[in-house]
Specification:
Strand content: over 45%
Distance between the termini: 83 Å
Structural class: mainly beta
Shape: rod-shaped
Order of helices and strands: EEHEEEEEEEEEHEH
Helix content: under 10%
Number of strands: 12
Largest sheet: 8 strands, mixed
Length: 240
């Protein structure tokens, strides 16, 4: 048997196919495995005219492949992360330890200090390469003909009309973050912590007492305030 391909448009390269025979073939549906076959192979194997009858099998492409259609949403390729896990969202702080000197923030009379703390983020994010599954379809006919002295004969029962193949591919769509609801804990994160609230803030200008914050002893606030000296321009905005 000879097989010829007659394409309605520019020839295309078929790669990974999941063929689906939508229309019933006049010769009967094939019983062999058609997974991974090209339309040309489907025509040849499906029709199988008897030798040596000198039949010709023609693949007639009815529809062009068209554009690729996305299947589902893009998804992370979790087999090869593009970055390390990191915290995401607004953290809460614990285990705050003063590590550096005292300072003021702008013109505030309060006192801050450099510190380390344990930061717990409500979510975790990580950078991954994202993939997208796609498909496109081609519909085609399988035509069988025999050239005789009386002309070209198209034997009934050997024609197969409206066959459909589905071509699949997976493409890269770039990097993005995968965010989960798993808390992320960062030990020893550097923060600026409020350690002393001045008496003026508490009493609105009347004499009062210092208030210690974040575990700082209020009795040490006057000394911390003196050590902080004058006001420092904003720019070292405190975290806590």
């Amino acid at each position: 048997m000879k097989t010829r391909a007659i394409l309605a448009a520019t020839a295309i390269a078929f790669s990974s196919f999941v063929p689906v025979l939508n229309a019933p073939a006049m010769a009967g549906q094939p019983t062999y495995d058609i997974t991974g076959l090209t339309p040309d192979q489907i025509c040849e194997d499906q029709l199988k005219p008897a030798d040596p009858a000198e039949f010709d099998s023609y693949l007639v492409q009815i529809t062009d492949p068209g554009i690729w259609t996305d299947v589902g949403e893009p998804y992370a390729d979790e087999t090869s992360p593009a970055g390390e896990p990191e915290g995401y969202g607004t953290p809460t702080y614990s285990n705050i330890f003063l590590t550096t000197g005292f300072f003021r923030n702008g013109g505030s009379p309060n006192v801050w200090g450099g510190a380390t703390a344990t930061a717990t983020y409500p979510q975790t994010r990580q950078l991954f390469d994202f993939k997208q599954d796609q498909t496109r379809t081609v519909t085609f006919d399988c035509v069988v003909a025999k050239v005789t002295p009386a002309g070209t004969h198209f034997p009934p029962g050997l024609q197969s009309i409206g066959n459909t193949t589905v071509e699949e591919q997976t493409i890269d769509v770039g990097e993005d973050y995968l965010i989960t609801d798993e808390p992320f804990v960062e030990e020893g994160e550097t923060v600026y912590a409020l350690i002393c609230i001045s008496p003026n803030n508490v009493t609105k200008g009347k004499p009062g007492t210092w208030t210690g914050k974040h575990g700082f002893n209020a009795a040490n606030c006057p000394a911390a305030s003196a050590a902080a000296g004058g006001t420092i321009p904003s720019g070292n905005a405190p975290v806590l």
